[in-house]
Structures are given as C-alpha cells and as structure tokens.
Amino acid sequence: QVQLVESGGGLVQAGDSLRLSCAASGLIFSSYAMGWFRQAPGKERAFLAAISRSDHSIVYADSVKGRFTISRDNAKSMMYLQMNSLKPEDTAVYYCAAASTYTMWLFTKTIDYSYWGQGTQVTVSS
Predict the structure, then answer these.
(1) How far is CA 16 from CA 10, 28, 58, 87, 90, in A?
(2) What b/e string do you get for 51-82 counting C-beta neighbours within 10 Å, with b at 16 or more?
(3) What backbone torsions phi and psi does residue 39 show, to the nearest 5 degrees?
(4) Helix (H, G, I), strand (E, B) or coil at 31
(5) Tens of pLDDT, residue by residue, the chain (126 residues)
(6) Cβ pair 70, 81 in contact under 8 A
(7) Nearest-angstrom CA–CA distance, 71 and 79
C-alpha cells in the first residue's frame, strides 16, 4: 500500500533551520505531484509548497516564500522541505502529500491530494 513517512521535525530556536524529508513507497513516485502542508493547533491544514512530477514547476505559499525550499529526488522516491529562518509561527505538524496526475501540474488544495503522511512536529521557540 502507499505510504508517505515524514521525518526531520523537532524543537529549534527562532532563526534556526530544519530539513524535512518525505519517504514514499508503494507508488510510482514520478507519477505524483507532491506537496507540503502544515497544521497548527486549532487551525486548518495550510498549503506550504508544491512541486510537479519532474520538479518542472514549484509554487510556495506567501508565508514561506524565500525561507522554505521544496525539492524531490525521483530516483530515491523522496521529497524534501528545507526550512530556514524559522519563526515561532512556523510551529505546527508538517505533512507531505501525493497527488496522482498525468500532467505537469501542481496542486495547492488538500482536496487534490490522495495520500498523506502521518506528520512530523516542528516546534520553534522564541
């Protein structure tokens, strides 16, 4: 079955960096557009970044543009989120997601994604 497993979360101080990883299995990774989302307590799951099947296209939410970088390695079935200049408001559970597509489109809405990981906690102290 399809599995997405996030790792790399943790407790850091404001201004620090973290690199999240998403390991995919049970699917043809290169056939899926991928995305990162996060959910803070009491808030809805929010889009952060998305990357098309062959990393031809990338899009970021305004809240993380210039600080976060999404990437993927289709040979390893891995996706990454490099997070720099972290702020306390970045504290949340971070999720990776996969969307099956025959196109080079990317997707920013949760409803577009078929598979989700279990999430990894990122806590940024001030």
Answers:
(1) 11, 34, 24, 8, 11
(2) bbbebeeebbbeebeeebebebebeebbbbbe
(3) -140, 120
(4) helix
(5) 999 999 999 999 999 999 999 999 999 999 999 999 999 999 999 999 999 998 789 999 999 999 999 999 999 999 999 999 999 999 999 999 999 888 888 999 999 999 999 999 999 999
(6) yes
(7) 6
